[in-house]
Design a protein that fits this description.
two-stranded antiparallel ribbon, binds adenosine-3'-5'-diphosphate, 19 helices, alpha/beta, globular, four-stranded parallel sheet
């Protein structure tokens, strides 16, 4: 993916139909054979659904709410991204200093394999491409969903930032709807996980519920993880996870690398879309999507969810 070009994938990987860059293919077997441990905790999502937010919540719940430790180590290191090694563009890898930003150059699959337990692992892979051992070892998995219109708008800004995408906004939206972007298809991703919702080792949260009732989601997630805290501790965590606090948090906001990327692509640093924690709102698509594109999204959702576990849900 050259900077400025549409971040469409090159290959479709069956049986999920996952769209990926061709660089992903040689890693498929390593991911399938990745050794899973029962005390791993996985956060899984389609990109831009609130993965980072969920990771920080889960990591703190599982680490005795140790804010000092969380603030002193990058989330990328505490909660590494399994397939980052095959997703990050060469340009991004080469442009970073291996000493400062080692995670961009690391073989993330090996890095995670070598970590001590308990491990925290992020992935955007669909159900069928997870490591085989996930189904026998059954580690805890937290999956997070979000309204696809907000996802698409967030993904557009994500690619403007990380891939220097300079193409037209409507073209990007069409590529999203046509399931051409990396990690597409969106609905199939969500539906496959939704089908597993009754499994005791799987919890599904939504970005929208995190926005409307973060305290409740923290409690529910703590219960799922078997962690016990009092109300004050939950309130303090909710405060730590607020958008403004996370946006300022240098262990999370990636601001150093983001600034490097902005400079390399000569981006306008006052552009509010060009940062990692951008708006953090529900329905912000209403400010950025034309009624015509919004209508196309609704028709696409109706078609994709018809006859599936999601058909009865008005929105997600
Ligand atoms: P926007 O681009 O709409 O602002 P992911 O981590 O899966 O890449 O998701 C990124 C999205 O989650 C971004 O959405 C980001 O701003 C939002 N986000 C991250 N932390 C958040 C928080 N504490 N509160 C609300 N939104 C948050």
């Amino acid at each position: 993916r050259l900077p400025g070009l549409m971040p469409v994938g090159d290959v479709k990987i069956e049986p999920s139909g996952l769209i990926m860059p061709k660089e992903f293919v040689p890693y498929l077997d390593r991911i399938k054979n990745f050794e899973v441990r029962p005390d791993d905790t996985w956060v899984i999502s389609f990109p831009k659904c609130g993965t980072t937010w969920t990771q920080e919540m889960v990591w703190l719940l599982c680490n005795d709410l140790d804010y000092e430790a969380s603030n002193n180590k990058l989330l990328l290191q505490r909660f590494p991204f399994l397939e980052a090694v095959c997703i990050l563009s060469d340009e991004l890898k080469q442009g970073t200093n291996p000493d400062d930003d080692w995670i961009f150059q690391a073989d993330t699959i090996n890095y995670i394999a070598e970590q001590k337990s308990p491990r925290f692992i992020k992935t955007h892979l669909p159900v069928s491409l997870l490591p085989d051992q996930i189904w026998s070892v059954k580690p805890k998995i937290i999956y997070v969903t979000r309204n696809p219109k907000d996802v698409a708008v967030s993904y557009y800004h994500h690619h403007r930032l990380w891939n220097g995408y300079t193409g037209m906004y409507p073209l990007f939206m069409q590529a999203f709807l046509q399931d051409k972007l990396v990690y597409s298809p969106f609905w199939e991703h969500v539906i496959e996980y939704k089908k597993l919702e009754k499994e005791p080792n799987i919890l599904i949260n939504s970005f929208e519920d995190m926005k409307s009732n973060l305290f409740g989601i923290i409690q529910k997630t703590a219960d799922f993880l078997g962690k016990h805290y009092n109300e004050d501790e939950f309130s303090k965590l909710a405060e730590h996870l607020s958008f403004n606090k996370m946006k300022e948090n240098s262990a999370i906001n990636g601001e150093e690398v983001v600034e490097e990327v902005r400079q390399r692509h000569k981006m306008d640093s006052s552009d509010p879309g060009l940062c990692f924690l951008r708006k953090g709102q529900v329905d912000s698509w209403k400010d950025e999507m034309t009624p015509d594109i919004a209508k196309q999204f609704d028709a696409w959702t109706t078609k994709k969810t018809k006859g599936t576990v999601l058909e009865k849900l008005a929105d997600i």
